[in-house]
Fold Transporter.
Amino acid sequence: MRWLNIFVVLLGFLPVVGKESIERGIYATFIVRASQSATLSLASSGIVESIFVEVGDKVEKGDRLLQLKTKELYQKLQIAKATMEALEQKYQFITHQYERYQKSQMALDKNTLEKIKTEYYTSGFELKKARANYALQKELLDNATLYAPFSGVIVAKNVEVGEAIGGSPLLGLETFDKKAILEFDSKYFQEVKVGDKFIISLNGEKQEIPLVLNKIYPSINTKSKKAMAEALIMDVEIPSGTFGDGFIVE
């Protein structure tokens, strides 16, 4: 009987699952991720001529980050442009000639008219090919320069000047804005709501400004049996990859 009384007393100190535990806070771990991140590469292959950023540099959307050697590409573009312009003049001349012959076709023999007609259609086909080639060479030249797709900070650099590249990862970029990805016991899935606060602890120290949950993931992780949520990090600077824990409260 004595041991039974001790067990009853100890039982009174155990946390009660339900509304009371929710008021105390639901324990959750978290890892910090950038709101948006990207591994950047180029569609074109070539030799790296210039790199304009280093790890830690802040960039704006549209900033030039890396440049391949473009001398050969530029020459090909100029040749394609000259060819296209020459064929445009030729096509205009043949078009005018064809239109004149059509008006006076009664005075021409059938073979001459067919010859002019063939030249007209052939010239048009050649011009289309020249325009397509010019567009291709221009795209290749444009693709030889890597631009920042969004504003953020450079977090990785996997290439150096002089290296040959061909679709391999070159730079890592992530936004300044961060988010905390939370994992908590799935038995609380129905209790946790968007708008709940998340009081985090970093290196054992409780942070004064709580995060606010802005997203509840709709499914449970089948491996960990954990539910997941997300909170934006607005008023505190925490680097990506930071791991910590805390409590979700209403």
